[in-house]
């Protein structure tokens, strides 16, 4: 598992190296922090818990309109944006990116496949 965690962190760092991305984190559905490249001044555990809560609330809202699966959630904030993407049924990738840019979901497809592989 330790080597898988190192591999996951490496993938998160690869994502972070994409232009306009400030940090990434991988969390479980229940808000447990798995790995993170967010800046040190961020409370990583609190961030993980709140991001999972947000995605869970969106999932609940989606179910009320007949959708059972939330593939991703984009949150527009005043300084940065968040993009939360499901990696597998149990984990969520959260990407923090520049508010004045857009994030192409296609850029995350390969990294997400790698993460899925390492989580098995």
Outline the secondary-structure elements:
Elements: H1 2-16, E1 21-28, E2 33-36, H2 44-64, E3 72-76, E4 80-88, E5 91-98, H3 106-119
Antiparallel strand pairs: 1-2, 1-5, 3-4, 4-5
Helix pairs in contact: 1-3
Please give the CATH architecture: 2-Layer Sandwich
The H/E string reads HEEHEEEH
Task: Please count the helical segments.
Answer: 3
Overall mean pLDDT stands at 94
Q: How is the CATH topology named?
A: Beta-Lactamase
Tell me the total number of β-strands: 5
Percentage of residues in strands: 25-35%
Structural class: alpha+beta
CATH C-level class: Alpha Beta
Can you walk me through this structure?
The chain has about 120 residues and is of the alpha+beta class. It is built from three helices and five strands; from the N terminus they run H-E-E-H-E-E-E-H. The chain has helices at about 1-15, 45-65, 105-120; strands at about 20-30, 35, 70-75, 80-90, 90-100. Helix 1 (about 1-15) runs antiparallel to helix 3 (about 105-120). The termini are close together. The model has no long low-confidence stretch (mean pLDDT about 95).
């Amino acid at each position: 598992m330790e080597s898988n965690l190192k591999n996951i962190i490496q993938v998160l760092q690869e994502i972070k190296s994409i232009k306009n991305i400030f940090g990434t984190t991988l969390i479980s559905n229940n808000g447990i922090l798995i790995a993170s490249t967010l800046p040190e001044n961020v409370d990583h555990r609190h961030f993980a818990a709140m991001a999972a809560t947000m995605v869970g609330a969106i999932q609940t809202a989606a179910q009320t309109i007949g959708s059972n699966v939330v593939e991703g959630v984009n949150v527009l904030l005043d300084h940065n944006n968040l993009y939360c993407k499901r990696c597998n049924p149990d984990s969520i990738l959260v990407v923090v990116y520049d508010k004045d840019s857009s994030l192409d979901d296609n850029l995350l497809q390969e990294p997400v496949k790698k993460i899925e592989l390492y989580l098995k």
